[in-house]
Amino acid sequence: MNKHLASRYRRIAAQALPLVGIWIATVLTAWFLLLGLNGAAAALAVLLLGWLWWRQDRIGGGAQSATHAAAVSAVLLALGFVSTLPDVVLAVSAAPLLAYAMAAPIVENQLRPRLEAHRLPEHVPRPLTRVRNPMFKAASGGGIALAAGAARLLPDWLVAVVVLLFLLAGAATAGYQLLRRRRHLPDREVRTALLAYRPDFYLYYSGRPEGAYQLQMWLPYLERTGARGALLIRERQFLGTALAISTLPVLLTESVEPIERTIVPTLGAIFYVNNAAKNVDGTRYQQVMHVHLGHGDSDKPASYASSTTMFDRIFVAGQAGVDRFASHGVLVPEEKFVLVGRPQVEAIDVRPAGSSLPQRPVVLYAPTWRGVLADMQLSSLASGQAIVSALLDAGAAVIFRPHPYAKRDAESRVLVTRIDALLSTSTTGGHLLSDRAAALSIFECMNASDALVGDVSSVMSDYLYSNKPIALAHHAGDRLEEEYPLAKATCLLPVDGDLAAGIRDLLAQDGKAAERDAIRAYYLGPWAPDAYAQVFVDACRDAIRVGTHVAS
C-alpha cells in the first residue's frame, strides 16, 4: 500500500477508533449488567472511565461524545446496581452525574479560552486554569467511584462522599474558569505578558496543518532580522504543528475579537503567508504594517488575487510579480509593491553557464497542487504517468515530488500511487519516489536534479535560479506565453500532445539558456548572490520600523 495512503488511514483510525471503542465498551457494560455479570460490568466501566480520564483531551473532536459516553456508562452502572447500592447513594450520585454530563459540552464550550499563549515569557497560567474539561473529569471520576462502590471496593457512605467531592471540584473549577472568562482575565494576562515580551512582528497563519511549509520557508529569514516575533494562528488544529516547527511564542485566537489584545505598542508588522479568508481579521488594525509574503512567486491566480490589495505592502520577488496584477486587471498602487527576491533560492546550486547534461540526467518532476477552483487547475498530475513514462523512455532518472497538498484528495493520492508504482518497477533504477522525495526539501530535490518538468507554480520560478533546463507541462492554448511569461524560457511539454518530442528538447542541447538569463531577473530580481537574501531581510526590518513609527 502507498505510504501516503497508509499514513492517512492511520490518522483516520486514530480519530475514529477511540470513539468507536468508547461506545462498544458502553454497550458491553450494559450487556454485562443485563446478564447479571455485575463484577465484569464494574471492571469494564472502571477501565473505560479511567481511560477516558487519561486520553479524553486527545480524542479528535470527541470531547462532547466522550463526555456523553462516560455519563451513559455511569448511569448504566447506577441502574444496574440499584439492588446493591442504597437509594440515597444513587440519589446523591447518579442524578448529578447525568446532569453534569448533559451540561458539560455547553459549559466547556464557554470555558475555552478566546486567546491562548504558548511559550510566551512571563505568561504562567494559574494551576486551576490548566484543567481542561473539568465537568467531564468530574463526571467520569464520579462514575469510577460508583463502579468501585458497586464492586464493594468502597463502603456506601464513602461512595457518596467521593462522588460529591468530584461534583464539587468540577463545579468549583468550572465556575472559577467561567468567572475569569467573564472578566476577560485570561486575555488580559496574555496581553500583560505580550507588553513585557515586546514583540516586533507576528507571522500570521490560517489554514490546515499540512500548510506548515508556508510558515517554515520564512522563519529563518525573519530570524535574521534580529526582531522579536511570535506566531499568530487562527485554528486550534494547527497548534501542535505551530509549536513543532518553531521556537517562537504561539498565540492562538479562534475568533476575531481577541486579536485586538495582541496589538501592543511595540508591534510593527504582521506578515501573512497565504490568501486565507481570515487574513482580513488581522488587517482591520491600522496601527501596524500589514505585509503580504505569500508562499511562493508564480503566475498562478493566487499570486495576483484581488484580496491582496488590502495589505499595506506586497512583497514580490521581481518585476513579474508587479506586472501580473496589472495584466489581469487588478489595480494596486505602485507604492505598495516591494521587490524582495526569493531569499530561499540561496540554497539552490547554480549550474555553470555552458554546462551539458550528463549521459543519464536526473529530472525532477514536481507537479503542482490540483486546486479546488477552476482557475487553479494547472496541475499535470493527471498526466503524470505519461510524463514519467516519456522520461523513462528517454533514459532519465526521475525524482518525483508532488505538492504537499496532493495527499488531500483521494484522486490525487491514487495518481501519486500509480506514478510511484511505475518508478518502482522501472528496470533502470536510481529513481526517488514521492515518499523519499518528500523527506527532502524542494531545494534539495532541485540540487539533486539536472532538469525540471513542472507546472505553472513557484517551483518553476525558483528553479530559474539554478540555470538548469526546464520543461513546462501545459494544456494547449493560444495565449500560453502571454498568460505565463516564464514559458518563454522553457521547453513546452503539451500533456495532450507529443510528450516524447518535448522531453527530447529538454534533454538535448540547451537551447533556452539565453531566454532563462533574460527572464530570471524579471522573475527573481537582479541582485548578486552574496547579497540576495539580505534584500528580503532589510525589507522586513523596514516594514517593522515604519509600522512601529506609525503606531507611536
What do you see in this structure?
- The chain has 552 residues and is of the alpha/beta class.
- It folds into three domains: 15-115 and 128-183, no CATH class; 197-341, 3-Layer(aba) Sandwich (Rossmann fold); 349-524, Glycogen Phosphorylase B (Rossmann fold), CATH 3.40.50.2000.
- The chain is built from 22 helices and 13 strands.
- Strands 1-4-3-2-5-6-7-8 form an eight-stranded mixed beta sheet, sandwiched between helices. A five-stranded parallel beta sheet has the order 10-9-11-12-13.
- Strand 12, helix 19 and strand 13 form a beta-alpha-beta unit.
- The mean pLDDT is 84.
Care to give the gist of this entry?
By secondary structure, this protein is an alpha/beta fold. It is built from 22 helices and 13 strands.
